[in-house]
Write a structure and sequence with these properties.
By secondary structure, the chain is of the alpha+beta class. The protein is 33% helix and 31% strand. It has three helices and four strands. Strands 1-4-3-2 form a four-stranded mixed β-sheet, covered by helices on one side. Strand 2 and strand 3 form a beta hairpin. The longest helix is centred in the middle third of the chain and has 10 residues. It starts with a helix and ends with a strand.
């Protein structure tokens, strides 16, 4: 099936898919909202081991996506 990783590999080949960021003083929703206020969309969200994970559409400006976690 399709996944963000498979799509990346088919589109770009091997390389850095994402950088993961967490912020001790800023919760997940606040972090996502700050990026959104700056025009950076969330392109996927899920829950992994009880933690929320989101991917931000930063590939065009950074060459990789940013992953935010709570």
């Amino acid at each position: 099936g399709s996944s963000v990783y498979r799509d990346f590999l088919e589109r770009r080949g091997t390389g850095v898919h994402h950088l993961s960021l967490g912020h001790a003083d800023l919760g997940y929703d606040d972090c996502r909202n700050k990026f959104a206020a700056g025009g950076i969309a969330t392109v996927g969200e899920s829950e992994v081991d009880g933690h929320r994970v989101g991917y931000l559409e930063t590939e065009a400006i950074l060459g990789a996506r940013i992953q935010i976690t709570d």
